[in-house]
Amino acid sequence: MGAPVSTIDLKAFRVSLDKATPPGGLSVELRALWHAAKGDWDAAHKLVQDAKSSDAAWVHAYLHRVEGDLSNAGYWYHRAGRPKQNGALDVEWSAIATALLH
Fold first, then answer.
1. Whole-angstrom Cα distance, residue 87 to residue 101?
2. What is the rounded CA–CA span in Å between residue 99 and residue 4?
3. Taking a C-beta distance cutoff of 8 angstroms, is the pair 40, 17 a contact?
4. Contact of 55 with 47, CB cutoff 8 Å
5. Which pLDDT band, with edges at 50, 70 and 90, does 100 fall under?
6. SS3 content of the chain, % helix, strand, coil (to 5)
7. Mean pLDDT, to the nearest integer, of 66-79?
8. Given CA atoms 95, 53, 34, 12 in this order, what sign does their dihedral have?
9. Distance from chain centroid for Cα 3
10. How many Å apart are CA 4 and CA 83, to the nearest integer?
């Protein structure tokens, strides 16, 4: 998993979306999720595209789902060791954020 975040929970992470920049101390994966939630797919993708962790691959898979590239998403779910997802994107975003925040 990425760098630990000791003082932020999902509620605070969501509240931070009203700010211009993500909170300090977030892992690259959480920063990517933050940018994705703000609608900045390119910034999110740049953060995880070369990252090697399974968590980065999980976020990368999610981003390709957002993009609508399900084949590419499937590749990244496999790299992450996670099952392919097909549910609501906001539910998956919350699940990933919750897992990465803990």
1. 21
2. 11
3. no
4. no
5. very high
6. 65, 0, 35
7. 97
8. positive
9. 14
10. 24
